[in-house]
Amino acid sequence: MALDTTIAQYDAPEKDLYEVGEMPPMGHVPKQMYAWAIRRERHGEPDKAMLQEVVDVPHLDSHDVLVLVMAAGVNYNGVWAALGVPISPFDGHKQPYHIAGSDASGIVWAVGDKVKRWKVGDEVVIHCNQDDGDDEECNGGDPMYSPSQRIWGYETPDGSFSQFTRVQAQQLMPRPKHLTWEESACYTLTLATAYRMLFGHEPHDLKPGQNVLVWGASGGLGSYAIQLINTAGANAIGVISDESKRQFVLDLGAKGVLNRKDFNCWGQLPTVNTPEYKAWFDETRKFGKAIWDITGKGVNVDMVFEHPGEATFPVSTFVVKKGGMVVICAGTSGFNLTFDVRYMWMHQKRLQGSHFAHLKQASSANKLMLERRLDPCMSEVFTWADLPQAHMKMMRNEHKPGNMSVLVQAPKTGLRTLEDALEARQ
């Protein structure tokens, strides 16, 4: 059933192209739109790869929905898409240009003829998993294992950095009305990813009283991991790289915080049984003891929430307890992971890859936001014109703790309804 929505009444002309922030008549689909586009020949840093272009508004299939984007979230997918690493998105979707962006809040503007659950005027957030819906994994299994699984805005050419975006109807979820458009836009990708990492891999789904080491605790993923761990009645031990972020992480509810700059055991594992390995091992044990100072002597963490990859993975596989799990969803510090396999097989540890989330998991996470159990931890909001610079800050790790958003059709920050946006334009 579609959500009950009272659609605002307003006068607006029908045109083929609207300026960014200009509101078309409800349900009127123009021929063209503004978008931040990447082209293969421009692959490079975001401020060079992303250029504003006028492109065609995408056409809908029967199960598709067109969303007017009010605000979009900034995450590392955009950086990877701009750089063309670890792969170029053009190698997948084969289209002439790529619109990045895998998070958004907005308004349903048009629906395909078989869409039943949503109608024009519904206010939504978007999760970024797409699939064809017709195989065994999508029907009784795990859609994230479907051969057709793909990430909207990274493996598809039509992400959220445009006035309109095309998504599958199953990607939509109700927007928390107590949040602003920009707050609503910043959380779904990182929150749902963190939710699946913590609760999606039985029998190592998080349980009350367990301890979790959270890398990048002040970032988008980490800030939600800590809140979800608290919600589950477990204990988060956050790792930071900047002492100024300690209080932020403690305020989120972390049981303790470690600064990785206090230790020297990062990067690829030295060759086993060399002096360099002994030095690494001694420093890693020092890091492990610092964890014990929080959890209790001899109490190793039940789970490690991994995403830096190359710089931290050897330590993660060492400090997790016997039978525990290292779950990883990214490799922001590099993709060549090394570890001492003896500690994996002899201590029967689980190394688990995790990739975004399916609708059930994303919806469960979104429900916590709807119920105000979680804070979106929005740190910075950028104007439409500054979208590439937001990605430059993320690439250089210069962004503030939490999650970033960029305004698209919302004319300014602090607005919570369509009526607010219309008034702000007057």
UniProtKB/TrEMBL annotation:
Q: Enoyl reductase (ER) domain: which residues?
A: 44-399
What NCBIfam families does this protein's entry cite? Answer: crot-CoA-red
Q: What is its EC number?
A: 1.3.1.85
- Give the GO molecular function terms: crotonyl-CoA reductase activity
By what name is this protein known? Answer: Crotonyl-CoA carboxylase/reductase
Concerning InterPro entries, the annotation shows:
ADH-like_C, ADH-like_N, Crot_CoA_red, ER, GroES-like_sf, NAD(P)-bd_dom_sf, Zinc-ADH_QOR/CCCR
The UniProt keywords, alphabetically, are: NADP, Oxidoreductase
What species is given as this protein's source?
Answer: Sulfitobacter sabulilitoris
